[in-house]
Design goal:
Radius of gyration: 22 Å
Strand order of the largest sheet: 3-2-1-6-7-14-15
Largest sheet: 7 strands, mixed
Shape: elongated
CATH class of the largest domain: Alpha Beta
Order of helices and strands: EHEHEHEEHEHEHEHEHEEEHEHEEHH
CATH architecture of the largest domain: 3-Layer(aba) Sandwich
Number of helices: 12
Oligomer: single chain
Helix content: 25-40%
Structural class: alpha/beta
Number of domains: 2
Strand content: 15-25%
CATH topology of the largest domain: Rossmann fold
Bound molecules: 6-O-phosphono-beta-D-fructofuranose
């Protein structure tokens, strides 16, 4: 009997744990015996390419990949089939809706179902494709942990570990030189990485997109640390924290979102202009947070997500995304998964934890 065909894609920014999900899907399918798994290279671009770029994912292909960062089937954040960028002859980029063509191709290639591993943007694509008739299941991924229907995404804990290790290194050099050290971490709209890193590392200040800060407060916290004799200060700032109500970065032609980066330095210069006389240095962690091997927790979460996603496909439960809630790996509808955003709320228990151990958010 011929096997049913399952297509897997990874979309959006990469994150540690993607390969562990792919491996878990392939191994589950192999044990089930009724399915064989394929990967679309570079999100759904692999389906839309001429000729298509589809790879067979068997046990040999996925052996040991759970330890590796990145994704063996590549990814992109420039492959939204509903708003697909096409280069015109005059060099301009036009965006067109290729979703019908994509679905037709997937079915014409003999695929019965699709698992789309990706963040908020990718799951909005999953929902739109499901609404148009595609048998699709989502798996949430993002280092930002900004999907509201899951308590955790894989990749986040690895990013926090990398940021915390980096923070610890900055503390020793800040202390040796009596400096103010600013660590800029990722976090576009949600400050989860910054908040976790600041608590784990023991920062004095944590600046996140959700909480507007005042230079005066930050300067006062810095001065009081020197006044009390400690003589150095460590600050964690999320790249999406706003300076004077503005994001710091650059939006180039064709970009859907502003490319963030530089708020750490902007803060340094603003503090110097404000009159802070202590030496200030900045470290921007950037994509280091998204690279390399996932920590054990993320390998386990990613494996559990991959297994659950395959079970949803096996049971025909399309239009859902797997999630992790209250220590259970379960699932929710794609509609629910994409309806709201996971911001750091002021009543979150970690805000209280942070304040109670003397961490300032720079609020007046
Ligand atoms: O969404 C995850 C994320 O890492 C954000 O924290 C960051 O702003 C963005 O992706 C960076 O995207 P890119 O890899 O396209 O520069």
């Amino acid at each position: 009997m011929s096997k049913k065909k399952l297509l897997v894609a990874t979309g959006g920014g990469d994150c540690p744990g993607l390969n562990a999900v792919i491996r878990a899907i392939v191994k589950s399918a192999d044990r089930n015996g009724e399915w064989e798994v394929y990967g679309s290279m570079e999100a759904f671009n692999g389906v839309l390419e001429d000729p298509p770029e589809i790879v067979h994912l068997d046990n040999d292909r996925v052996q040991g990949i759970h330890v590796k960062g990145g994704t063996i089937i590549k990814t992109t954040n420039k492959g939204n089939p509903l708003n697909y960028p096409i280069q015109k002859e005059n060099g301009e980029t036009e965006h067109i809706d290729l979703s019908d063509k994509l679905i037709e191709r997937i079915y014409n290639m003999g695929f019965e179902a699709v698992i789309n591993i990706g963040g908020d943007g990718s799951q909005k694509i999953s929902k739109a494709l499901f609404d148009k008739g595609l048998n699709i299941v989502g798996v949430p991924k993002t280092i930002d942990n900004d999907l509201s229907s899951t308590d955790l995404t894989f990749g986040f804990s690895t990013a926090v570990q990398i940021a915390t290790d980096s923070f610890d290194k900055l503390v020793t050099t800040a202390s040796s030189h009596n400096r103010v050290m600013i660590l800029e971490v990722m976090g576009r709209n949600a400050g989860w990485i910054a908040l976790h890193t600041a608590i784990a590392g023991g920062a004095e200040l944590c600046l996140i997109p959700e909480v507007p800060f005042k230079l005066e407060t930050i300067a006062n916290v810095i001065e009081s640390r020197y006044d009390e004799g400690t003589g150095f200060v460590n600050i964690v700032i999320a790249e999406g924290a706003q300076m004077d109500g503005k994001l710091v970065g650059r939006k180039e032609e064709g970009d859907e979102n502003i490319k963030l980066g530089g708020v750490g330095n902007a803060l340094r210069f603003a503090l110097e202009d404000y009159g802070v006389k202590h030496d200030i240095r900045v470290a921007v962690l950037g994509h280091i947070q998204r690279g390399g091997s996932p920590i054990a927790f993320d390998r386990i979460l990613a494996s559990a997500f991959g297994v659950r996603a395959f079970e949803l496909v096996r049971d025909g439960k399309y239009g859902h995304m797997v999630n992790y809630k209250n220590n259970l790996v379960s699932y929710t509808t794609l509609a629910d998964a994409t309806s709201s955003y996971n911001f750091v709320e002021v009543n979150n228990y970690l805000i209280n934890t942070a304040k109670s151990i003397g961490l300032s958010f720079g609020v007046k």
